[in-house]
């Protein structure tokens, strides 16, 4: 019993230590953000005169309103299309078992581990030739393609477990393939779809490489890319940079805290399957 | 998992085949849109990367065919080859630390899994997964600077002698960048392993206790083997993160000092967009993609059976 | 149930598919339109911005408020012109320049090294404007560094491809209070005198030099080039920077300079964490009085006059021998117009305005801290003698007398700074590179980059 109690205490201590290490960077950002702009505050020191106005200045300097709007537009472009197309393909490959489905699936699977840096160069010239550089479509279209392997993989994993009898009975009732998909399988797939949606949202929101290469205007980028631009422009003013970073973090953190259960579950399943 | 298995009897097979041919072609309409995006924005660029890698091209003027010369340079030019070596070294930090530490922490937490503290911790240690890597890079470069919190802490502990600008020192820059990666990935690994542990049959542990096994024996002979799949997943995800790292390094060191933290992802970006050596960039990109597949495929294969 | 796909069949299908995809297109770059060399169009009258509303797209460097201040004043005088300004740090601009000029052309852009941009036909040929506005009647040395032969080589002669908004100068800033502490009453006249002051500062527990050398920006190139100018003539260094055939950086006098820098490093004259110090950190440390000397340029004069009034001094790098000629890195703060800019005429008019308008020249001196471009008899604002700006402007005249102006060794090729000087200097700080090897390595990279282009 004594050992058990000691183990429990060690466990608690470890947890607290780990949480402290996790929180530390956020805390440091926050404290530094309150120092007068242009200074180099040493370590963790509470400022004598906290400059709450830094957040307002960063909000204006970063043009946060426009950034939020841009990120939302990009997410709205990427996530629904990816979900619809991924679900349809996953349904066809996993449930309808189309001819040649296995080969197609293998081709998709090969893309699962693709590092984006591998194709960023030709992607740049392709987007340029399409005349889409410096538009949000330059991020949206390639991301749909790049997320397709995972979306298909994820949805196939769901559909492959759906019993065929479900479809057999619907077919007997005269439903065609589209109705079968729309009326029976999509409603049943909602949990898988919403988890996929969360993952795609997060990956889109935090996409950096495509944003900095394909879009120069920070107000047409993702949040992450905008933060890169913000660092490029204000990196010389540490408190302002910290304030801006925190502001840019806030939306994801807020959404995470609201939907945290789903988030954690989705991310865990996501990495298990991916 | 109970599913009618097609092809048991000859008659069933014929019926199945008929059904497939009618469904089959209609089904392609479901696959085509997804495939179109994939082909245009992934497969075509991959093919183009392969093509570019055989040319010398500045991205503007005409190109010259150079065969495999670019690949030759990837493996002989120390600047390019070292970036690959650095990526492999990063695996130690991105993979080994989160997995080993994650196992230890998860095993400890398991005993108090139901407590309030553990529930809060689940949320908190997950935060690094949610924020952009760019933000992690900014926050940590500030923590690791010569006047940062890390040095402040070391000085408090009486270790003032070892303080330094961690990201600006040849000996410590790569490990420091690695620690940022470890910070990001530790939470994910811990929670993954924890989730896996909750599936382990408690009876196994009880039996072991009855046999007089200590916590360590229990850990080695029950916990680790049961988590084979979860560990494999952690390793895959983190190895890919290490090899394809870009965001953190772009923000915190830009590959410096010297080329101490140069990784293939960043090198490709510089080669392609600032030095305009598209061919070299593409050759390195091909090598990187193959390296990732070479690392990920065996582990994927390994977990395949678990994935039905 | 086993769902293994036989790899051979699908693998083959994949290879065929890839082959088809690749075969569908020819050699890269073969079918995209090639930008053509822009030739100077002869203008009948000097262009202007007109009266219709017009928005200029500009791309400036962060931390240099002079460009923005000028645009604000310009809009005040020409209300139909508004500005859409993007800012980045210089390292980012260097990375982005070719891409942005080609595919998202700004009307006015702060430029890094120009010769490769000219080679790729990304910059507008300004000869026509020079003639129309009379820039060719200004002292020729002002625009020399912005002239390029066909294809970008060599630099120093040929057509004009960029303009400066002022003419900056580098040397050594010092903290007057700390100088007093070590008994330094007047700027050292020789290199030995400077060495002496450095040693005294070190003994007094003062950081002798604050400099930046972190990330992608090797700031030790400033003291290195100054040392090169102490030991040898400026001419061969300029030849190297201008990519004249046969030029080399690996010369005996440059080796002496590199060895001298190594001695400074080994003596601990720089901050311990210099490899992690970026430009802004260096500035804040110097302003905070954390170091005696700083190798930097007069673009900071205005800033220093504001942030540490009366406490900062400036002198030119002293020669190795007393009475020797002095030299300094001195270059136009370079701005250019994209070959594909929509409002090139208005941008050129702005550049002319910067050099000739009374108000603009005052902004250039007060905020920019440097000598304005323009005619020799152009308006110069009065500067109080105790201001560091006054010393930097005076130093400019000395350099002109000694004919000692050099471009920056980091500007020799587009990649030489980030890929060669910076890593090599960072290695030297860490004791991983010798002066001999440093110069050899840089020369090797230079040869490859110049030939590869």
From TrEMBL, chain A:
GO terms for cellular component: plasma membrane. The keyword Transport applies. It is a multi-pass membrane protein. Residues 68-259 form the ABC transmembrane type-1 domain. The chain crosses the membrane at residues 12-34, 72-96, 103-125, 137-155, 188-215, 238-259. Keywords: Cell membrane, Membrane, Transmembrane, Transmembrane helix, Transport. The keyword Nucleotide-binding does not apply. It is found in: Cell membrane. One of its GO terms (biological process) is transmembrane transport. It comes from the Bacteria. Belongs to the binding-protein-dependent transport system permease family. This is Sugar ABC transporter permease. It comes from Sphaerisporangium melleum.
TrEMBL record, chain B:
GO terms for biological process: transmembrane transport. GO terms for cellular component: plasma membrane. InterPro entries: MetI-like, MetI-like_sf, UgpAE/MalFG_permease. The keyword Nucleotide-binding does not apply. It is a multi-pass membrane protein. Keywords: Cell membrane, Membrane, Transmembrane, Transmembrane helix, Transport. Residues 84-299 form the ABC transmembrane type-1 domain. The chain crosses the membrane at residues 25-47, 87-107, 119-143, 173-195, 231-252, 278-299. It is found in: Cell membrane. Belongs to the binding-protein-dependent transport system permease family. This is Sugar ABC transporter permease. It comes from Sphaerisporangium melleum. The lineage of its organism: Bacteria, Bacillati, Actinomycetota, Actinomycetes, Streptosporangiales.
């Amino acid at each position: 019993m004594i050992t058990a109690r000691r183990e429990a205490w060690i466990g608690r201590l470890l947890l607290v230590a780990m949480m402290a290490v996790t929180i530390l960077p956020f805390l440091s950002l926050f404290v530094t953000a309150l120092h007068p702009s242009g200074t180099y505050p040493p370590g963790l020191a509470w400022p004598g005169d906290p400059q709450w106005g830094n957040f307002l200045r960063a909000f204006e300097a970063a043009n946060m309103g426009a950034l939020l709007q841009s990120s939302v537009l990009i997410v709205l472009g990427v996530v629904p299309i990816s979900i619809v197309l991924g679900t349809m393909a996953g349904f066809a490959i996993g449930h309808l078992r189309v001819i040649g489905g296995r080969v197609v699936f293998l081709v998709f699977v090969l893309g699962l581990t693709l590092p984006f840096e591998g194709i960023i160069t030709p992607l740049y010239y392709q987007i340029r030739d399409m005349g889409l550089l410096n538009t949000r479509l330059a991020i949206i279209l390639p991301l749909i393609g790049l997320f397709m392997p995972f979306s298909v993989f994820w949805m196939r994993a769901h559909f492959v477990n759906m019993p065929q009898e479900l479809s057999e009975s619907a077919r007997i009732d005269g439903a065609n393939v589209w109705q079968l998909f729309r009326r029976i399988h999509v409603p049943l797939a909602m949990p898988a779809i919403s988890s996929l949606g969360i993952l795609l949202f997060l990956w889109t929101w935090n996409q950096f490489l495509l944003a900095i290469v394909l879009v120069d205007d920070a107000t047409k980028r993702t949040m992450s890319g905008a933060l890169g631009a913000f660092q490029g422009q204000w990196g010389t003013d540490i408190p302002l940079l910290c304030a801006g970073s925190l502001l840019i973090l806030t939306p994801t953190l807020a959404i995470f805290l609201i939907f945290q259960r789903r988030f954690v579950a989705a991310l865990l399943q996501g990495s298990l399957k991916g | 998992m109970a599913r009618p298995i097609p092809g048991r009897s000859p008659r069933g097979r014929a019926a199945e085949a008929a059904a497939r041919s009618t469904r089959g072609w209609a089904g392609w309409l479901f696959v085509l849109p997804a495939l179109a995006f994939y082909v245009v924005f992934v497969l075509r660029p991959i093919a183009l990367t392969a093509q570019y890698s055989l040319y010398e091209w500045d991205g503007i003027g005409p190109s010259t065919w150079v065969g495999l010369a670019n690949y030759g340079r990837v493996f002989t030019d120390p600047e390019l080859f070292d970036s690959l070596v650095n990526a492999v070294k990063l695996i130690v930090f991105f993979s080994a630390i989160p997995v080993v530490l994650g196992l230890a922490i998860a095993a400890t937490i398991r005993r108090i899994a139901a407590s309030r503290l553990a529930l809060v911790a689940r949320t908190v240690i997950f935060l690094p997964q949610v924020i952009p890597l760019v933000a992690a890079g900014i926050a940590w470069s500030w923590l690791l600077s010569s006047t940062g919190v890390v040095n402040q802490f070391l000085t408090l502990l009486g270790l003032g002698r070892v303080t330094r600008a961690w990201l600006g020192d040849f000996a410590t820059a790569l490990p420091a960048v690695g620690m940022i990666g470890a910070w990001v990935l530790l939470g994910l690994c811990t929670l993954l392993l924890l989730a896996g542990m909750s599936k382990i049959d408690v009876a196994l542990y009880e039996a072991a206790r009855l046999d007089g096994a200590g916590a360590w024996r229990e850990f080695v002979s029950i916990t680790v083997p049961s988590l084979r799949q979860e560990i494999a997943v952690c390793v895959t995800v983190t190895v890919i993160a290490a090899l394809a790292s870009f965001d953190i390094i772009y923000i915190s060191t830009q590959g410096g000092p010297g080329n101490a933290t140069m990784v293939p992802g960043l090198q490709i970006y510089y080669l392609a967009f600032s030095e305009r050596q598209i061919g070299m960039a593409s050759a390195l990109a091909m090598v990187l993609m193959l390296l990732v597949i070479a690392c990920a495929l065996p582990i994927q294969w390994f977990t395949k059976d678990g994935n039905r | 149930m086993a769902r293994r796909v036989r790899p051979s069949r699908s693998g083959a299908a994949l290879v065929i598919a890839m082959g088809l995809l690749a075969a569908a297109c020819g050699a890269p770059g073969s079918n995209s339109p090639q930008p053509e060399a822009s030739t100077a169009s002869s203008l009948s009258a000097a262009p202007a911005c007109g009266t219709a509303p017009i928005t200029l797209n500009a791309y400036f460097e962060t931390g240099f408020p002079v460009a923005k201040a000028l645009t604000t004043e310009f809009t005040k005088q020409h209300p139909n012109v508004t500005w859409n300004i993007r800012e980045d740090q210089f390292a980012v601009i260097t990375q982005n320049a070719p891409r942005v000029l080609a595919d998202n052309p700004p009307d006015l852009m702060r430029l890094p090294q120009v010769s490769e941009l000219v080679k790729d036909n990304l910059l507008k040929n300004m000869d026509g404007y020079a003639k129309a506005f009379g820039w060719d009647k200004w002292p020729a040395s002002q625009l020399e560094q912005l002239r390029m032969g066909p294809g970008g080589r060599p630099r120093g002669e040929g057509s004009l491809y960029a303009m400066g908004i002022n003419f900056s100068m580098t040397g050594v800033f010092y903290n007057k209070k700390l100088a007093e502490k070590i008994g330094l009453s007047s700027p050292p006249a020789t290199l030995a005198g400077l060495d002496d002051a450095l040693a005294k500062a070190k003994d007094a527990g003062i950081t002798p030099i604050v400099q930046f050398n972190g990330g992608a920006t090797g700031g030790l190139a400033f003291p290195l080039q100054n040392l090169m100018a102490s030991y040898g003539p400026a001419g061969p260094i300029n030849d190297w920077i201008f990519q004249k055939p046969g030029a080399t950086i690996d010369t005996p006098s440059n080796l002496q300079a590199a060895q001298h820098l190594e001695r400074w490093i080994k003596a601990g004259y720089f901050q311990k964490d210099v490899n992690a110090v970026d430009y802004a950190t260096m500035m804040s440390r110097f302003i905070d009085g954390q170091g005696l000397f700083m190798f930097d340029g007069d673009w900071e004069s205005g800033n220093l006059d504001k942030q540490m009034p009366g406490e900062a001094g400036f002198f030119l790098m002293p020669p190795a021998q007393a009475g020797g000629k002095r030299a300094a890195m001195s270059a136009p703060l370079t701005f250019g117009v994209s070959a594909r800019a929509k409002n090139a005429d208005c941008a050129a008019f702005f550049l002319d305005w910067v050099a000739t308008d009374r108000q603009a020249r005052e902004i250039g001196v007060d905020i920019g801290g440097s000598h304005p471009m323009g005619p020799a008899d152009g308006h110069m604002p009065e500067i109080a003698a105790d201001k560091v700006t006054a010393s930097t402007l005076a130093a400019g005249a000395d350099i002109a007398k000694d004919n000692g102006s050099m471009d920056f060794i980091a500007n020799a090729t587009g990649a030489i700074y980030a890929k060669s000087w910076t890593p090599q200097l960072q290695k030297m700080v860490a004791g991983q590179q010798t002066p001999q090897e440093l110069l050899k390595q840089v020369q090797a990279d230079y040869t490859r980059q110049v030939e590869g282009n």
